[in-house]
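Hi F.,

I've been meaning to write this up properly since the lab meeting, where we talked about keeping a consistent format for the predictions we share between groups. The idea is simple: the sequence comes first, exactly as it goes in, then the C-alpha cells exactly as they come out, then a line or two of notes. No screenshots and no reformatting. I'm using this chain as the first example so we have something concrete to point to.
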Amino acid sequence: MTTTKEEEDIFEIVDYTTASDWERFIARIEEILSDWKLNGPETSNTEVDFTDGEWIERNEALEFGDRSYTISHFSLQVPESNSTVTTDNNPQMTTSVSIEKQAFVPPRAMADMMSRRNDFPSRSPYLSHWYGLREFLILSPKRNTDPIADESRANILLSSTAIAVSNVGCNVPIFIRVQHEWRNMFIGLCEGSGLRTHFNVCNLKNAPHQYRHLAGLLEIFKSKLGSHIPNDIVIMVAVRFTYVLRDFESTVSRQVLPRDETGMPILTNLPFGSIHDPVSGLHLSCTWPIFSEEVVTENDDCNDFDPLLSQQWAIGVTLLEELPVLLSDAVQEYLNLSTKRETIEQLLGKFQTADEIPNASMNMSDPIKRISDSRTQQYWTSISSSISNTTSRLRVNIFNPPLPPNVVEKTIEYLFNESATVERRRSIVNELPNDTERIRQLKSVPKDSFVYRVVVCFTAICSLPSINRLRSIAHLWFDIVQELRTCWETGKMIPGLESGSPNLSFSKFYQNLQMLNCCIEHRVRHENDSTTTTVDNPIEPDEDGDQFFECSSNISSSKSNLTELQPEGRLKPCGDLKLLNSNEILYVPVTQECPPATEDMLDEQTAILTSLGSGEDATLLRAKMQSRSLLSDMESFKAANPLGTIEDFVRWYSPRDWIETEEVDADGNIQKHYSLSPRMQLPDNLWVEVWQQARPIPVRRQKRLFDDGKEAEKILQKLSSLSPGEILEQLIPVLLHTVYDRIAKEIEEMEESNAIAFLETLNAKEVLIVKGREERKKKLQQDFIICLTSVEQYICRFKSFKEKLFSPDLNHKEKEEMIKVVTELHTRPEIPVKAAAHGRLGKRLASLFTKTKPTTNQANSDSTEVKNQFMTPAGKEYILRASIARPSNLRSRQSPQRIISSLQNFLTGSTRKRPAFINTDKENLPLTVDSEIPTKQSRVALGSALIDNNLFNSIPYSPPEDFIIKAVDPWSPIEPDQIHLTPAHDRRASNRSETRYKNGSFRQVLKWVRSLGQYGDGNNAFREPNSVAWLECGKLAVVDTNAHCIKVFDSETGHFEYSFGRGRTIGCQNLLYPYRIAVVPGGDDQLVVIQRHPRPQIHVFSAKGEFIRRFGQHLEKPRALTVDQSRRIIVIESQLQKLHIFSLEGKILSLFNLSEQLQFPTSICSNNHEIFISDNHLHSIKVFSYNGQLLREIKEANYITYPTNIKLNSLGQLITIDNHQGLNITVYDDYQQKKRLGAYTARICHSQILDVAIQPKQNILHLASKDYRVYTYQLPL
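Output, unedited:
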C-alpha cells in the first residue's frame, strides 16, 4: 500500500516550449527561403526562352536529427530583353481564357507548366525538362549512401517543406529526392493562390504495350483526372519523336600519321587532327508543338505522326569527349622533351677519340686551334684536311638506331633540298606586314626555311608512337650536323637560308646557320680569287703560310720611300677631292668587308668589353680592341694613296671630322680654312696612333678580319655539343610559328570567318611564352596547350560536320548558312533546322535517317520494289495538358493538369528501357512502380540519361543473364552497411560454358563468385580500394587510399577482421594515401605497403598491422610493387620508368632506368629469376633480368590490348588482366609465355579494375574495382 501511495504522488512536468528537431528543421528551411528572398508571391507570368538564359544553382546544408540534407535552388537568369511575352497576351496559351475568367493570378510555376514555349528544352535540368519550370528547389540527402528509401521518412520531409513554404509564402515548387540519386525519383509540391500542386514521378522498367502510343497515354491521363470529366474538356498534346543515327562515324574524318608506300613514317609534315572521328552520333528531333487530342491518331493500327510532315526539326550531335588530337599532343611532348638534358653521347653512344684510330697523323683534340694555327700549310689545303680528319674522328657508332635509315635519308633530303633557298625578303614588310610583325615578336624564322623545316621534323617525331622520341631526335640531329659539316667541307651553301650577313631579327639558331653560310660563301669566293691571282700574278705565301700577310718590318714609311711605292688597291676616285700635300686625285681604296656577326657574337664581345672595367687603361684597351677594322682601312688607304695624310683619310673616312671655316681678310676676300675636329686633335688620339702604326698594305695582302674557317668550326662544334633538349628549347619560338601557320592553313580551308579569332588568341599566348618571365613559362606553356587543344578539336569537329552534312553542290549563300549551322552545333545541344524537311539541310538529314525497305508488288508477286522508310524513333515524348476543376466541377477552381511521358528505345531488339510517366495534378497521387518484372535492362541507363539531359545517347548496360533484377519497392529500406548478394537461379547450370567473340578474340564467359564492399566509411565499405593482397593465412588485405588505412577481411566469408594504418599503427606515423600492397612470401605474411604522392615511401607491417620499418623516401612516382621468393621488394615508377630493387630491410640493391623500354608501366610481378612489367601504352608485357636487361616482349593482338595487371600462379603461368571494353583475362604458359592457355571475359561490364590479388594454388582472383567493391573470380585452369 505504501508503494502504491508513493507512485501516485510522483508526477512529471513536460516542457512543451522546447523546440523539437522537427520544428528546428522547419525553421531552418524557412530561414533559408527568407535569405534567398523566396518568401513572397511570384506574380510575374512573363514567358522566357530557356535557351537564352543561364541556370544558376546555390546550395545550403541543414540537419534533421542525425541526418544531413542539402537544399538546392535552381533558377534561370534571362536577359530582360528576352522576357517580353506574357501569358495574358499570348493567344497560344491554353489557360489564358480560363485564368481570365477566374479572377485570380496563378503562381508562376503553374503558368510555366501550361506554357508550350519551352515544352522540350534542349539545355535545362531534368525537372525543368519534365515540367517546364524556370525555378525550383530540391531537398536531397547530403550523402549518396543515405538515400530516402522509406515512405514515412519521405512523407515527413514533404510535410515539413509544405509547412515551411506555407509559413513564408513561397510559391516556388519544392521537390524531395527519393530513392538513390541515379533513379531520379522525386515527389514535390507547389503552393500559391489557394492551390496546391503535387508532383509525382513513376519509372517503369517495361512499358505495357497499350501505353506505347498516344491513345494509351490519353487513357492514363483521363483516369488520373477522375471520373467526372466534363464532356467539353479539351486535352492539348505536344509530341516529340527523336531518331538516333548511331553509325555516324566516318573514316574520312579520322586522321592518321602520314606514312609512305612502305609503311614508314613521313617526318616532313606537322601532324594534325585526331585518329578518332570527333562526331560519333547524330539525333534528329521532330516536334508537333500543340494540337488537341481529336486532331491526330496514334495507336496500334494508325499513326498520323509522319516526321516528314513535322514543321519543327532540331538536330544534335554526340561529340567524343576528351578528343585526343595529334598536333596538341605532339607540341606537349615537344615541350616536355625540351626540359631533358641527356647528351647525344648518352643517347646514341660514345665518340671515338684519335687514340682509337690507327695511324693518326696529327692530334685533333683541338680542331679549332689546329685550323687557326698560323703555321699550317697552304690555307685551303690545311682547312680541308683538318676538317676532313676531324669529321672522320667524330663519327658515332649508333647502336640500335631508333629511326630506320630510309626515314632519316628521306628527311635529310627534304631538309637540304636546294630548291628551298630563301631570298632575302626586303619587300616582305609591304607584302605581309602582319606575318613580319608576328615573326619579329616571336623572334622566329622565315616560313619554309631550313630551321622551320627542322622544327617540323622534330614535331613529327614527337607524334610517333612506340619509339624513344628523344633518342630519335638525337639521331636525326646528329645526321643534320654531319650534313652541315659536309656542306662546309665541299663549299655547298645550306639551302633554306637568307643570303647575306646574319639577320638579327630572326632567332639565334637561324643566325648561326646564316653565319655558317657566310663562312662557306667567303671560302668559295676567296678560293676563286686565289686561283685567279695565282694565274695572273702569282704571290708567294710568307713563312707563316698566310696568303694575306702583314707588311714586313723593313718597309719604311719615310717620304722618299712613299714616293717610290706604286699605288695598289684603288677602287675609284673619291669625287673631286685631291690630296692636300699634292695635286693627285684622292682614290677610294678596296677594303675588307665588315665581318658578319651574330647576336651571340655581339653579346660575347659586349661581355668581354664590359669585363675590362671603367678606368682609363680599360677605355684605351677597349678602343684598341675595336680598332682592327680601322687599321685595315688605313693600310688600304695608304696603299691606294701613298702620298696621303691622316687629314686626307679623315676627309674620306669621316667627313664630319673635317671642319671647313670661312674668314674675311682685310681686303674683303673670303678665305677658307680647314682643320680636324676637336676630338681628332685631342692628345693621345687613337686615330693618330693607329695611323702611325699602319703600313701601306693593299687589302689582298692584309691579315683577314674575318676568319671563316675558325668561325665555321666554332659553329659546328657548338651545334654538335648541344643536347637534344637544348636544341628543342632554343627552337620553341619556331615551334610556335609552325603551329600558328598550320592552324591558319586549316582555318583558311574551313572558310569560316569567326574562326579568325582563334588565331589572334593563339598569337597572343605565343608572344606571352616568348616574352614572359622564366618562372612563368611553364604555366604559360600549359595555357597555350589547353588553348591549342580546344582550337584543334573545334577544327576537327567542324571538318567532320562539313564532310557529313555539306552537299557538294551548295551555292555561296547555302554554304554560309551551313557554316553557321555547324558553328552552332559546337556550342548548343540542339539547333533548329530551317524549313524542316523541305530545306536543304532537312533533305540531307532525311536521306541519312531514311532506310530502304523492300516491298512485294501485289499484282506481280515476283517483282520487288524498294521503298524508303524513316527509321524507327529511338525515343518518344508526350506532353498532355488540361485545365479542369478538381475535385468538384461546381465548387473547385480550374487548375492546370499536366503529364509528360518519355519512352526510350522501346523497339531496339531485346533491350528494353523504362518509360517515365511524370505527372502534376492538384491531388496527391501515390507513386507506383511495377514489381516482379524480369528485364535485361539495368536501371542505371535511364538515370544516367536523365542526369545528362540527353535521353537517347546512353549505352545500355546488360547485367549477367544468370541473374534476374527484381524491381525494388520504392519505400523498402536499404541498410547501407549490408552486403547484398543475389544468387543465380538453380535452373542455370553452373558448369555451362559460354563463349563470346570480343575485340577480335574468342573468350570464355565467367561470372563472379562473390563481391565485397560498397562506397562509404563503414568497416564493410571503401572510399577508394586501390589495391588488394591475399595472405597465406586466408585473409584478404584491401588498401583504402582515401581512408588512409588497410582493411583485412576473411577471404571466404567476407567478414571484416581488423584495420590498421590510421591512428592504430604502433611505432610510426599514420599512413598517408597508401597506394599498393604486396605480401612477403615465407609464411609470416608480412605486408609491404607503398604510399603515393605527396609522401611516397615504403612501409613494412606484420600481418596483424604492427609497424616494422619504413624506407624509400627517395621514390617519386611509384606505380606498382611486388615481393619475390627471395624477399626482395621490386618497385616500378611511372613517368620516370625507374626500376628499384630493395632488400626487405630497406637496402637499395639495384636501380635501373627503363625509359627506353617502357612508356606507361602499370603492374609488376616476378618468378625470382625474371621481372615481368606490363606496359599499357605499348600493349605488351616486357620481361627483364635482375640486371635490368630486356630479355623478351610478350605481345598478342586482340588478347593483350591495354594490360593493367599481371600475376603469376603457383605453376608459373602468367595471368594478364586488361580493361579494354570490359574485364578481359588471358593466361599464358610458364615457359617464355609463348602458348596461350585460356582467354576469359566477365559477363558483366566492370568499372575500372585497380588491382588484382591471386590465390596462386587455387587460381582464384580478387579484383579491386573502381565501383568500391572487391570481386572474386575462379579461373577454370
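Notes:
The CA atoms of residues 1259 and 1277 lie 7 Å apart.
The chain has a mean pLDDT of 76.

If this format works for you, I'll send the rest the same way.

G.
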